[in-house]
Specification:
By secondary structure, the chain is an alpha/beta fold. It has two domains: 124 residues, ornithine cyclodeaminase, domain 1; 189 residues, Rossmann fold (3-Layer(aba) Sandwich). Helices cover 32% and strands 25% of the residues. The chain has ten helices and 16 strands. Strands 1, 2, 3, 4, 5, 6, 7 and 8 form an eight-stranded mixed β-sheet that branches. An eight-stranded parallel β-sheet has the order 11-10-9-12-13-16-14-15, sandwiched between helices. Helix 2 crosses helix 10 and helix 3 runs parallel beside helix 4.
């Protein structure tokens, strides 16, 4: 059985292609999608600085492919020189039920998540967006930079982290990406056309009063109710609110469930990527609108990326 390791996944990944695969998956839909966060005491370990989680994300497109990602999130791992996210993806042939490939789960998560944000930006951000701000110093941030730059004419990238000394823009600059370290978050947000956040913040780092008209806000990091990256003012200023999948955002992610609980919107007001890609609900309507997107992930996204990478590998050999 084929195994695509991290190096091979990164070699195969091209963001325009992955964005196209995600759009196609959202248009055609998926027959089965689930998300399970195993939270029994033996499977979630509470500790002094947070918690360790194990997530299972299956999806099935009948007669095409099905698969499951098993991924662990251990936030303290970087202190041990280990990735915070680790796991594996198992891909099956949907016609015969045959296991056909495994893929490195961490690498798949990085490229899929970045491509998902780029897909939303391609559908929602201004076509002339030129200044990108990425917040976060984890492994995902460089991929978000590359993915957003692949779908918009980005002329300048600001990269912000609470620990700026840990950021290394050199590999991105070597790829021709115009990356510079941002010192003042307030000032960077005021200037940005696209803001992409990938943090584990529990208190919002993005204030709605900082957002300029026409910007696009891409919230990626928080996947639990207690996590928030943008405040209520940012939610209120957005013309509409978009999520990738209701299963992993509404009632799950703090940036969505907290404003809903506060009565700032109703669940029916939220637009998901299935609806947007099918033309069932509106996207951006003018260049002064603020667009707000929350990425929670989902098994259908992993399946779309896994089958794309598998087919690309087979086609190259």
């Amino acid at each position: 059985m084929l195994h695509l390791d991290a190096r091979r996944i990164h070699a195969l990944s091209d963001y325009p292609g992955l964005v196209g695969a995600l759009k196609a998956m959202n248009r055609q839909g998926v027959d089965i999608i689930e998300r399970m966060l195993l939270s029994q005491p033996t499977r979630r370990q509470e500790h002094g600085t947070g918690q360790n989680d194990w997530l299972l994300l299956p999806a099935w497109s009948f007669d095409r492919y099905f698969g499951i990602k098993l991924v662990s999130v251990f936030p303290d791992n970087p202190r041990r020189d280990l990735p915070a996210i680790q796991g594996i993806y198992a891909l099956f042939d949907g016609r015969q039920g045959t296991a056909i490939a495994t893929l490195d789960g961490a690498a798949l998560t990085l490229v899929k998540t970045a491509a998902n944000s780029a897909m939303a930006s391609d559908l929602l951000s201004r076509k002339d967006a030129a200044l990108l701000l990425v917040c976060g110093g984890g492994a995902l941030a460089p991929h978000l930079i590359a993915a957003h730059c692949a779908v918009r004419p980005i002329e300048r990238v600001l990269w912000w982290s609470r620990r700026p000394e840990a950021l290394d823009p050199a590999p991105l600059r070597a790829l021709g990406l115009p990356v510079e370290i941002a010192g003042d978050l307030d000032r960077a947000v005021h200037a940005a056309d696209i803001i992409s956040t990938a943090t584990r913040a529990t208190d919002p780092i993005i204030a709605g009063e900082w957002l300029k008209p026409g910007c696009h806000l891409d919230l990626v990091g928080g996947y639990l109710p207690e996590m928030r990256e943008a405040d209520d003012a940012a939610f209120r200023r957005a013309a509409r609110h978009y999520v990738d999948a209701r299963l992993t955002t509404v009632g799950v992610a703090g940036d969505v469930c907290a404003p809903l609980a506060a009565g700032l919107a109703k669940e029916g007001d939220i637009i998901d990527m299935f609806q947007l890609n099918r033309g069932e609900r509106p996207g951006r309507e003018d260049n002064r609108e603020i667009t707000w997107f929350k990425s929670g992930g989902g098994g259908h996204e992993d399946l779309a990326a896994a089958q794309y990478l598998y087919e690309r590998h087979i086609g190259a050999n």
